[in-house]
Amino acid sequence: MRGYQDVLVEQRLGELAGRLRGPARLKADLLTEARHALQDAVEAYREGGLPPAEAERRAVAEFGSPTQLVPGYQAELAAGALRGLALRALAVAVVLLVGGDLTWQGSSWSVDGPRPPEGYLLLSASLHGIWALVADLALAALLLGFLASRYGSSRLDRLARALGYGLTGGLAGGALAGTALFGWSVGLWEAALTWPPMIIGAVLIGASWFALARATRCWLLSTS
């Protein structure tokens, strides 16, 4: 079996690409940087008089094996994935906290209709609290991610990872509570499905959840 010293540049890059998981753009940037570093090393060895194949073997051997390289690259990908998730979660949370109530303007209970059940009001208030928590977790994840990249602290990395799991849980709770509130609202107010603010809100929230689901999946894969 060949040792890693016998693997050429493109083969090594292919091995790295197959083992790394995370944001596609960041992954491509990391592999491009690795390619440039390897090519520079190859050129240096060739200028020193080595044949092309031997220059590549030496450059790859000096660069390191996948076992040595993957942990560092994967940590950077995980940090990037968490940053993307936190930014999206923060944006959605702020929009829902500021404009969520506009969806219900004109509903039967916002004018002169009967007051909704206490359970409905409790669920609505809980949803507001969930999104406030999501916003706080997203801000904390962004801050910790910045500090971890600046100071290279493994402890900060672990805290950021824990915040990422908390953020994922908060988003799952927000999805469940939001779906329940929407369904309950339709049951209380039949015209909800034809009410423009409700329709616009549902479309925007659906698109937001699609983006959040993709970002969450990307982060979870990058940490697995």
Outline the structure in words:
The two termini are 29 Å apart. Helix 4 packs antiparallel against helix 6 (118-151). Helices cover 81% and strands 0% of the residues. The protein has 224 residues and is mainly alpha-helical. The protein folds into two domains: 4-64; 78-223, Up-down Bundle (Four Helix Bundle (Hemerythrin (Met), subunit A)), CATH 1.20.120. The protein has helices at residues 9-19, 24-47, 52-63, 66-99, 108-111, 118-151, 154-188, 196-223. The protein has eight helices and no strands. Residues 1-5 have low confidence and may be disordered.
What's this, in brief?
The protein is mostly helical.
Layout of secondary structure:
Layout: H1 9-19, H2 24-47, H3 52-63, H4 66-99, H5 108-111, H6 118-151, H7 154-188, H8 196-223
Helix pairs in contact: 1-2, 2-3, 4-6, 4-7, 4-8, 6-7, 7-8
Task: Throw out a few tags for this protein.
2 domains, Four Helix Bundle (Hemerythrin (Met), subunit A), 224 residues, disordered N terminus, mainly alpha, 8 helices, single chain
Number of domains: 2
Major β-sheet profile: none
- Specify the helix fraction band: over 70%
Q: Which class best fits the helix and strand makeup?
A: mainly alpha
Which whole number gives the mean pLDDT?
A: 84
How many beta strands in the DSSP annotation? 0
